[in-house]
Design a protein that fits this description.
Elements: H1 2-23, H2 27-45, H3 47-69, E1 73-75, E2 80-85, E3 88-93, H4 101-113, H5 119-151, H6 156-188
Antiparallel strand pairs: 1-2, 2-3
Helix pairs in contact: 1-2, 2-4, 4-5, 5-6
């Protein structure tokens, strides 16, 4: 009961702050408060629901790829990817960090309050961006499997911690450029993008 009252209090204060910044035409502060507020609310109240479904979706997608390639196996019930390497078997658990839920919530929070286009355009960018993040995460996981299988279990840490993050970060930079920077330039009439 206390959690519900706390949530309602925070949500009301958040909406009042958004209305205040909107009324005073302080768009930057509205963007900051809106993005940070919806992110925190989503992290606290929606993450457990989204994370479970996203882990299942990742497992289902990886299972389709695994059945087509026989390169690794997926234990869907436990969200585990298992594969042989030159030096042993590796089992990788698709958990909170590997699911991409934080990245999706950050992107969605920013896109909801970023000042561009009409609502339909914004919805399309949010859906398309989240699909891109999902596919980037699948690509990262497949790269980790490929590097670990090719070079051995000793390279799992490097593949997961370094190479996987660099790949994912690079793909996020591309996404953020096309969604935020290029779109902002287009609507600001700063230059022409082809």
């Amino acid at each position: 009961m206390n959690n519900i009252i706390f949530f309602i209090t925070i949500a009301v204060l958040w909406v009042i702050g958004l209305a205040l910044f909107d009324r005073t035409k302080m768009h930057f502060f509205k963007f900051l408060l809106g993005s940070i507020g919806i992110f925190i609310i989503s992290m606290v109240f929606l993450t457990p629901i989204i994370e479970d479904r996203l882990s299942l979706l990742i497992s289902d997608t990886l299972e389709v790829i695994a059945s087509a390639t026989n390169y690794f196996s997926v234990l869907k019930e436990n969200s585990i990817v298992s594969f042989d390497t030159r030096t042993g078997i590796i089992s990788m658990f698709i958990d909170y960090e590997c699911s991409g839920v934080i990245e999706m919530l950050v992107f969605t929070s920013l896109a909801l309050f970023f000042p561009f286009g009409k609502a339909l355009h914004r919805i399309g960018l949010i859906i398309g961006g989240n699909i891109f993040i999902f596919l980037a995460n699948i690509t990262r996981i497949l790269m980790i499997v490929f590097v670990s299988r090719s070079f051995g279990a000793d390279y799992f840490y490097i593949a997961h911690t370094l190479l996987g993050r660099i790949l994912f970060f690079g793909l996020m930079v591309v996404l953020y450029y096309f969604v935020f920077t290029a779109t902002h330039l287009k609507y600001q009439h700063v230059g022409e993008l082809k």
